[in-house]
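Regression check, adenosine-5'-diphosphate case 253:
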Amino acid sequence: MKKVILSARNVCKTFSQGGADTQILKSVSVDIYEGDFTVIMGASGAGKSTLLYSLSGMDGITGGEVLFDGEKISGLPEKKQAKLRSEHFGFVFQQTHLVSNLTLFENVAVTGYVGKNRTVNSVREKALELLRQMNVDNAKDRLPSQVSGGEAQRAAIARAMINSPRLIFADEPTGALNKSNSAEVMRLLSELNRNGQSILMVTHDVRAALCGNRVLYMEDGNILDELNLPPYSDGEEKSREQQVNEWLSALRW
Ligand SMILES: Nc1ncnc2c1ncn2[C@@H]1O[C@H](COP(=O)(O)OP(=O)(O)O)[C@@H](O)[C@H]1O
Ligand SMILES: [Mg+2]
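Current build output:
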């Protein structure tokens, strides 16, 4: 039996702007399971990013609750939320948000020094190992401006992994990459998942989505449907792409 790692219970999110309220998340309830590669798909503006940020605590919610490991994390003081995020969550975004005046290695290592009681040497070793695993160790001493978008994103994934997170949140991690870099990033994320890493990823790219084993479809602030797939392995792209596409067309995507 799979273990629930993260739960949304009737999560609502309303933005207030210029006196008007807009409800972006309309009572979303969903369980995310440990070991899964869960994908959130849906058209632009469906509320995918808002849901991801609401679940991770980066953004406050205006109704319902979020539970991590069965414990309520929504509504905790920001300091506690920040600690929880740095200890248990990893983040990958469309833009890498690497620190521009630090090398790739430093970007990864600096994140490892924060929060946990680890020795400098063990953090450095782990950073190097992750950069190797992400196939970007030959560029480790370069600044983000001196590497390709794909290399920068691979370093950002290494950074997300440095504190051995329970769950990786990824928002359109291939959104700024060309086809071959996207494929490489997805190959690496799939590999992490095969090694047990739980991932929750937002994408509107079918080729990225097919790497997941569970795809949720969002529309207008609700989760409408989900598609369950066997765990991904290399060489199955064609049939999985077809499966995801058929499911999406039935949803009038
Ligand atoms: N900070 C904000 N203030 C007001 N409206 C927002 C804010 N963030 C997002 N929205 C609105 O919420 C809706 C969903 O946005 P988002 O979650 O980014 O969608 P998606 O990631 O699916 O493209 C959009 O209509 C967007 O304009
Ligand atoms: Mg988005």
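Comparison notes: Strands lie at 4-17, 20-33, 37-41, 63-68, 71-72, 89-92, 167-171, 198-202, 214-219, 222-228. The pocket of adenosine-5'-diphosphate (ligand 1) is lined by residues 15, 17, 24, 42, 44-50 (CB under 6 Å). No diff flagged against the previous build.
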